Amino acid sequence: MLELRRGYAIGGLLVFVLCIVFIIYLSFGEIEGRLWITLYWIAFLFISVHTVLKGFAMEHQNRYFYYYSLLRPEYIFLAKWIYNTFVLVVLGLLMYFVLGLVAGNPIDDQGIFLLAVVFGALGISLCFTFVSAIAVKSDQSTTLMTILSFPLIVPVLLHLIRLSRASLPDSMVTDIGTSLITLGAIDLLLAGLGLILFPYLWRS
Hints:
By secondary structure, this protein is mainly α. The chain has helices at about 1-5, 5-30, 35-50, 60-70, 75-105, 110-135, 140-165, 175-204.
């Protein structure tokens, strides 16, 4: 509820999505399928960084003391993750629609691609929420967030691109189960680490 009250932040994200799509359209025009998917996920990653990594950093220290008296730390972590996932799914679908409208839509199997968007939102929001919760305790939180998130996000992004390519016509990618299992395993690992470590970070 507190996040949704910041209407200017949501509006800024929408403008950010439209600007990225417009720049891609001006640079490439009609885009071939594999390039379209790669550009989509790179843009999605930039949007995710802008959306998620500041989640804990924007909170005032006194508000943490207030939360501490009301809630268990696991609830805070889960609430941030669920909210970030919801926002990323909405922005991902918006970017998919607008990019397909202005630069053509090469996706043949909509179901696989939408599944990739949901898994991507889950994985990327969980990764960035976890990293943001760790880095906010540091004086150089922005630098630390970048360093910590890079090795975690690269395998997620590579499997998302591979999964998305399976939605193209005449795609050579047939085994999407491996990518789904890998993404699910990464999500479970990060969720477990977050729920275990965040209470200790919270108390510090």
